[in-house]
Amino acid sequence: MEYLILVISLAGIVFGADYLVAGAVSIARKFKVSDFVIGAAIVGVGTSMPELVVSFIGAIQGNADVAIGNVVGSNIFNILGILGITAIFFPIAVNKDNMKFEMPLCIGVSILLTILVFNFFNGNVPTISRVDGLVLLLCFALFMWYSFYRDRKQNTSGPEQTVTQEEKTPLWLAVVKVLGGLAVLITSCDFFVDNAVLIAKSFGVNDAFISLTLIACGTSLPELAASVAAALKKNTQLALGNIIGSNIFNITLILGLSSQVMPLNSSGITAVDYAVMIGAAIATVILGWKGKIGRLSGTLLFISFIAYTWYLLSSQIA
């Protein structure tokens, strides 16, 4: 029965993502917001809701391995898995603005999280304290403000964008699509994660492994579905914005809020996991340096994800 629910949930995730992306593009055009910003801000926050719910529940239950592992694992999967798969089929354009701000910021907050977790003021156990969480929330607020400020400034002097038939959708209908698609995404993702965990626990694996793999990949399915849906509509900027934005939100907003519930003391998530997360963020800048993340780069990213997953599995077996 669990396997049947997984398949149905996956179908719901794909369906919800298509509506979410369509509505978000319509809203973006009406308010003259760029595809990248709408992907990073609206779609990015929306598709990060499953991670927020899972990490919040983990914090409330005192399971920091789930709360932190979900975010670290999701960020790794977003870049190595989702960006890799998307680039294999739809080469992703990377513009100079992405390289100057959002992508370096993704690297910065990944490094900041690692520093906060392993700083000497937290004792022997890696911890995200409430003060650390406030620092992360401040970064989230600054990112949101500057993204819209810069985008609005650029649009005042930039050329008018061509409006397609899809983008002429009435505003109320576009909002309904975004909210409806998001609701289907979150609900489907919740069923997917719950049943994936049940299946995993039947094989006797620990919480850290489950959070870094099954839960992380499950809660990232909305990002995968939204990115592929955007790429199918030939909107790779929205796909890239969704992935980079989700990673920034996962660290700054989700762990920032979760740590306010209670300090997150986690020893199950190792320095290797944080290093892979940072390395994945750095890879986006290196591979996109010439203005495009192509099929070969996408293949390298995805192979790296397989290698990391194999490492985790090997560690679990050992």
Q: Show unreliable segments.
A: none
What is the rounded Rg? 19 Å
Helix content: over 70%
Mean pLDDT metric = 82
What is the N-to-C order of secondary-structure elements (H for helix, E for strand)? HHHHEHEHHHHHEHEH
- Spatial sequence of strands, sheet with the most strands: 1-4
Task: Please give the oligomerization state of what you see.
Answer: single chain
* Number of beta strands: 4
Largest sheet: 2 strands, antiparallel
What is the terminal-to-terminal distance?
31 Å
Description of the structure:
The mean pLDDT is 82. The chain has 318 residues and is mainly α. The strands form two sheets. The protein has a two-stranded antiparallel ribbon. Strands 2-3 form a two-stranded antiparallel ribbon. It has helices at residues 2-30, 35-47, 49-60, 64-89, 96-117, 130-155, 171-201, 207-219, 221-232, 236-261, 271-287, 295-317; strands at 92-93, 127-128, 264-265, 292-293. The protein is globular. It is built from twelve helices and four strands; from the N terminus they run H-H-H-H-E-H-E-H-H-H-H-H-E-H-E-H.
